[in-house]
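[Meeting: bench + compute handoff]

Bench side (C.D.) handed over the final construct sequence. Compute side (W.E.) agreed to return the predicted structure before the next meeting so the bench team could plan truncations. Sequence as handed over:
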Amino acid sequence: MAQQDTDQQRAGVLPVDDEGYVIDTEDCEEREAAWRERGTSRPITVVGNPVLHKECKDVTDFGEEFQQLVADMFASQRTAEGVGLAANQIGVDAKVFVYDCPDDEGVRHTGVVCNPKLVELPAEKRRLDDSNEGCLSVPTAYAPLARPDYAEVTGQDEKGNPIRVRGTGYFARCLQHETDHLYGYLYIDRLSKRERKDALRQMAEKEPRYPVVAND
């Protein structure tokens, strides 16, 4: 058993393609359900809470407690009907996000990234997409935000194995958005003052559709 576990960790949780990127498009329904059914949904922390506005701590212990956190994150993401969720969005100071997100071709991607770092793109890959963006921590608010339509992230999977993840379109936006969270940035921090004010107004005018943690 111990040897089998070691071999599995060396191989990584997800298979990789010929270029070394994880293949996160297979068995998405089964993998997401397995995580979610073990987890407990937690309320979402909203803008203004200090945990959202500072860099999170690196994940160094991938043990049972951390595995439960990941399960809770998948459960919370499903309750909130999100496509990505960072640990600090449920009040936990840990550098990990989960995702269950389609790309612009409708292909579903599901996975876990710990200690992510965005790869700096060469100029020829930096095509900007100014689609609307929203955030579970800024409920009911949306604003256009230009981001590259392709993204690469390096980090570790839920067992600590090194991984590389890449995405296009909506999934690329998700990877950038969730990585931002773990370094203390919300998408509204990248807006102009006027656009940020409008997003916060939208948030104030409507009730979120999922449980949130009220700021004192």
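W.E. noted at the follow-up: Confidence is low (pLDDT under 50) at residues 1-10. C.D. will use this when planning the next construct.
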